């Protein structure tokens, strides 16, 4: 994200410049924007902190893991609820003829970005394609989860994992389990070789994979290998189905 530019406050003895008060539409979308950005930031930060905790998940109690999974699922449900609300607001604005075109365009842009993060729409852009070979079947679930989190921490905006004719779109509540050579991602069985597609700044994403202890090092330690391509265009087409809320209700 970029830091917003702020004008200096008027001096103590200066009269503040007259400004038109914001419209009700601008206020609504401003609040929505702040809430959604905070939600996305929290989701990504949580995932990164889990990665930084190292082997903590291996020693966690099953009850703690269930709580963590439930938290991620609820966060994903909240994100989808915010997207649905924003879609409805756009429909209402168009039907009533309220709001100027600039506000509508800004809301549509935010909706598009959030939908990509939630995995409910396809995405196209520059990025990286990782081809992970694991002939000895030594790459475990934690290693693949580390790769996902390292890509996210490096700014990946959309991630997809492919294996043969199977593919999975990574979301806020994605999980990885299974034995090496038979990894299960969000309930889908994947076998090597794996292809990981990520959209973002190619040099930054590639550098994250090559850091000491990163994806390349991890794969080589278990007899595997990682090839990193940086195409100008990466197409991510696998979609995630929005999950219905079970407990959470929007705050008032």
From TrEMBL:
Residue ranges crossing the lipid bilayer per the database entry: 27-44
Disordered, as annotated region: 1-23
GO cellular component labels: plasma membrane
Pfam families linked: DUF881
Compositionally biased spans, kind Basic and acidic residues: 1-17
Keyword Ion transport: no
Lineage top rank: taxon: Bacteria
Record keywords, A-Z: Membrane, Transmembrane, Transmembrane helix
Annotated family: Belongs to the UPF0749 family.
Protein name as it appears in the record: DUF881 domain-containing protein
Species per Swiss-Prot/TrEMBL record: Mycobacteroides chelonae
Taxonomic lineage: Bacteria, Bacillati, Actinomycetota, Actinomycetes, Mycobacteriales
């Amino acid at each position: 994200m970029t830091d917003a530019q702020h004008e200096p406050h008027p001096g103590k003895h200066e009269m503040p410049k007259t400004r038109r008060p914001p419209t009700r539409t601008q206020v609504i979308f401003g609040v929505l924007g702040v809430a959604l950005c905070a939600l996305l930031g929290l989701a990504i930060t949580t995932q990164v902190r889990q990665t930084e905790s190292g082997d903590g998940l291996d020693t966690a109690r099953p009850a703690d893991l269930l709580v963590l999974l439930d938290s991620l699922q609820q966060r994903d449900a909240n994100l989808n609820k915010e997207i649905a609300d924003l879609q409805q607001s756009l429909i209402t604005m168009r039907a009533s003829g309220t709001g100027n075109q600039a506000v509508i365009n800004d809301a549509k842009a935010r909706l598009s970005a959030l939908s990509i993060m939630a995995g409910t729409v396809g995405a196209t852009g520059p990025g990286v394609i990782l081809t992970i070979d694991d002939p000895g079947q030594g790459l475990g679930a934690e290693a693949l989860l580390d790769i996902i989190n390292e890509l996210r921490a490096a700014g990946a905006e959309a991630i997809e994992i492919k294996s043969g004719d199977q593919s999975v779109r990574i979301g806020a509540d994605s999980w990885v389990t299974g034995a090496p050579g038979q990894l299960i991602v969000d309930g889908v069985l994947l076998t090597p070789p794996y292809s990981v597609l990520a959209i973002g700044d190619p040099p930054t994403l590639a550098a994250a994979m090559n850091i000491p202890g990163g994806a390349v090092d991890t794969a080589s330690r278990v007899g595997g290998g990682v090839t990193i391509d940086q195409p100008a265009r990466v197409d991510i087409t696998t979609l995630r189905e929005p999950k219905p809320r079970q407990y959470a209700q929007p705050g008032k």
